[in-house]
Amino acid sequence: MNILQKAGLTIFIILITQISYAQHIFKGKVIDEITRQPIEYAGIKSGITGKTAITDEAGNFQLVLPADTATLQISYIGYAAKQLKIKSAVKRFTVLLSHGSIDLKEIQISPNLNNASFHTLSALDLSLRPVNSSQDLMRLVPGLFIAQHMGGGKAEQIFIRGFDADHGTDLNVSVDGLPVNMVSHIHGQGYADLHFLIPETVSTFDFGKGPYYSEKGDLTTAGYLNYSTKDALDKSMLSLEGGQFNTFRVAGVIDLLGAKAKQNGENAYIAGEYNYTNGAFKLPEQYKRTNLFGKYSKQLGANNRLSLSASTFSTSWVASGEIPGRAVAAGTTAIDDNGNAIKIAAAPVTIDRFGTIDSAQGGRSTRVNANAKLTTDLKNNWTMENQLYYTHYTFLLHVNSSFFAADTVNGDERQQQEARDMFGYNGKLSKNSYFGNNMLTSAIGLSSRFDRTYGSRYSNVTEQYQFLDDITKGDIRQNNTGVYLDETLESGKWLLNLGSRLDYFKFNYHDTTKTNVIVSPKINVQYTANQQVQFYLKAGKGFHSNNAIAVIGNNGLATLPAAYGADLGLNWKPIQHLYINAALWYLYLQQEFVYTDDGDIAPGGKTRRIGADLSARYELAKWLFADLNVNLARPRLADSLAGRGYLALAPTFTSTGGLDFKLNNGINGGLSYRYMHSRPGNNTNTLVADGYYVTDLKVNYTQKKYEVGLSIENLFNTKWNEFEAEQVSRLKGEAAPIDQMSFTPGTPFFAKLRVALFF
Prior knowledge:
- With 759 residues, the protein is mainly beta.
- The strands form nine sheets. The protein has a 22-stranded antiparallel barrel. Strands 22, 23, 24, 46 and 47 form a five-stranded antiparallel beta sheet that branches.
């Protein structure tokens, strides 16, 4: 027998020994005691060997252990931990967890984490911090900042990882797998208006940064964000809120079937909200928003689970818009004809910071969604998911940020409008395979989305909305079909994830069609040194598609510019009640998109970003929790000369943090801050978008049947600008247009009271 034969025989004997040694399989399912719904990412740990597992989306887990009897510890954030003694002879057992206090010692550093480390942060933050708006939900994501600059009804501007991501160009946003982003939207690529989401219906949210996720396709460059709504309610709720600026909100979430139906795996509820506010502006905003949502879920036999949901949303508002600095005070900065920064006098007529120059701005929007998902257990560790969704959407916006710069007679009022139908399918087939103490998770997925717009039009109009001429006009037909393959191997302390997706696009505009294909490989490697520290390396390629209007026009723009990124990070629990996630990252983008006031997409060139993220959660006492997020970025144009490579409005240093408390007597809440450092307002940094530091307070008194709460935005009444952007504008009485920063003031001290009843 030669050396190779001996070596092969030795490896074979070792493998056989390992497999025969680990013959005892423990299979279980973890569910909520009241709702009977599965708990995803619950941690399971063997008391003897220390081996761990986490539950999947259906609440299932499997552990392979050397003994036929095991003591298992089951835990999840916000639930009371359980310990049970189980024999492997039990075919499959179910563990019911009840709600309990929040304890950071329940957070596990385990080899099974992979991307679940971010879910740990989101679950903890959602459990601790009260939310009552979609804006509150978005701000829970570490490093994500939002800004509103054209009235409360429009999608927020998004800032994350060194990106001014416009309204969603570089962040893939979804709710229950249904896309929120609108591709080839008349107001901007990837427009993500989340206002149709009622916060009381949200059970969890999941996020990931960078282009490293096989399941996520278009617009996943800075990352992705997905919210999951509740399949079942633990209680019904009615609430009433009122506050300054004629603000009020009525909301309700009502269980339709009750406890007996839950026992049989059947649930149904409806939810609704109505919002109104005039805002802090001198011109009343008259912001109205109505949301209705319903969801039904049922266990169909032992192997199938069906979920059906539908929602409708409508909103209208009057916008004060952006105003140039000189309209408020003298001594503001502008750019002269040579590109130099100069101080200028005030405008001929000045107004208050919360004043209005053009009162004709504002808009309205509607959205109707239908969503169906069937999850099937195919046995032998095979699972299949099938989802169909539909959206009907309308949008109308009147905006004027340059006033009389282009048209000194009629003004620069512009109208954007579209209606759209969106149809889509998501499917996934996955299997868990076990080889001794190793597990291989294989997944193949298919998604297809078709968007069709009607009456897409961007026009110059008068302040009375009389039509002047079109900037762009024409309906869009767009399809994106993607397939992906994903393999994850867990072996001892190592986890290796390899994946790739292929996306096909078809754009049609003005009866002209263009197609393109892109392949996006991914790799994630994770090493768990011990129960305190875990290291990971992520690398991958992603992309953001271009607006169909620009694709067909071919104005020097790439159809599917790619993004290449890498993260080197760690998850660390130096002590029981402290959890830290940190990462160094890099991202290269083949082409930045810049949305101009003319309704065009301008090529912004190649860009590079490097940065660092830090998130820490610390339990100071059983009732007191601290959180800190620090995000640094250096965003630059890759091919620019020194001093001219800045990216306008791209964040360079942001931080959020605070203290949250939950007392046994029902008093809970938190004090939190938001910090955005000053950043370049243009590519030469001669104009600057001012930074801000804002503090918010929330205090609630919660009992079994009711809750009374007080929330205060901008507790110390800080003077700040929520949004700033470079604009070439001309006011009445000015001889020529002036290039300077325009701004939308941030909310001053704003207090609201809330009363909720539970039943």
